[in-house]
UniProtKB/TrEMBL annotation:
The gene is Mitd1. It holds the Pfam family MIT. Residues 1-71 form the MIT domain. Gene3D superfamilies: MITD, C-terminal phospholipase D-like domain (3.30.870.30), Phosphotransferase system, lactose/cellobiose-type IIA subunit (1.20.58.80). This is MITD1 protein.
Length: 241
C-alpha cells in the first residue's frame, strides 16, 4: 500500500498536481515507516529508509513551492467533478481549507433561493454548508451571504427561510449578514485565511435525489453530482463585499 501511494505521488508530482501529490507523499511515507518498524531484515530496512528520506526531501520541496505560490498569489488547483460522480459532499470538498483560524466566510451565489425547484434545493444546500461551518474545526463567527432576490411569490418563502437560518446560526453563536444584488452572477466562497473556491455551479452541483427515502437524500457524499469544475486559489488579501 505504501509503495502504491508513493507511486501515485510521483505521478501527480510529474503532472504538476502538487497539492494532491503532497498528500500522497505524506500518506505513503507514513505507511512505509510502519513497514520499516515491522521489518527485521536490516538490508531491507536500509533500502526503505533511503527511499523514505528521498520522499521526505521531495515532500518538503513541494511544501515550500506551494507556500511560495500562495505568497505570490499564484496558487491554483482545479478539481473536475464528473457527471454522476459521488463523494463530493461539502465537508470532503472544503475540509482542507477550513483551518482553525477561519472565523469569517463570504458566500456569493445568485441562486440561494427557492426551496423546491425542478432540480434544486438551494436553501437547503446553503443550510448544509452552514452546518459544516458550525461543526468546525474552524471557529466561524460571521458568514456574509450575497445572493439575488427570488422572483414573484417565491421571494416571501426565500426571506422566511433565510431569516430562519439566520436565527438558528445566531443561536449557535454565528452572525449571518445577508445582502442582495440584481447583477450578481459570479459564484465564489472565500475564507479569511486566504482561500477562495469558485464552483461552476455554486453550491448547487448535486442532482435531485430520487426520492425522500433514497440513499443520498441526507448524506451529500452519496448524492450523484452534475458535471462542474472547482477552482481553488489562495490570496493574501480577502476581498470584502
Amino acid at each position: 500500500a505504501g509503495a502504491e501511494t508513493v507511486k501515485r505521488a510521483v505521478q501527480l508530482d510529474a503532472a504538476s498536481r502538487f497539492q494532491e501529490s503532497l498528500v500522497c507523499y505524506q500518506e505513503g511515507i507514513d505507511l512505509l515507516l510502519q513497514v520499516v518498524k515491522a521489518t527485521t531484515d536490516e538490508a531491507k530496512k536500509h533500502r526503505y529508509r533511503q527511499k523514505i528520506s528521498e520522499y521526505m526531501t521531495r515532500a518538503e520541496d513541494i511544501k515550500k513551492h506551494i507556500e511560495k505560490e500562495k505568497q505570490d498569489g499564484k496558487y491554483h488547483k482545479q478539481i473536475r467533478i464528473e457527471e454522476n460522480a459521488t463523494g463530493f459532499g461539502y465537508e470532503k470538498l472544503f475540509h482542507e481549507y477550513l483551518t482553525e483560524i477561519v472565523s469569517e466566510v463570504w458566500v456569493e451565489d445568485p441562486y440561494i433561493r427557492q426551496v423546491h425547484q425542478a432540480s434544486r434545493y438551494l436553501l437547503y444546500n446553503f443550510l448544509r454548508f452552514c452546518e459544516m461551518l458550525v461543526k468546525g474545526p474552524c471557529k466561524v463567527k460571521t458568514i456574509h451571504l450575497l445572493t439575488s432576490y427570488d422572483e414573484g411569490s417565491g421571494r416571501s418563502q426565500q426571506m422566511t427561510a433565510l431569516e430562519e437560518i439566520k436565527q438558528s446560526l445566531s443561536n449557535n453563536g454565528v452572525t449571518l449578514n445577508i445582502d442582495f444584488s440584481s447583477s450578481i452572477h459570479d459564484r465564489e466562497i472565500r475564507f479569511n485565511n486566504g482561500w477562495m473556491i469558485k464552483i461552476g455551479r455554486g453550491l448547487d452541483y448535486f442532482k435531485k435525489p430520487q426520492g425522500r427515502f433514497s440513499i443520498g437524500y441526507c448524506d451529500l457524499d452519496l448524492r450523484p453530482c452534475h458535471e462542474t469544475t472547482v477552482d481553488i486559489f489562495h490570496t493574501k488579501h480577502t476581498k470584502k463585499m
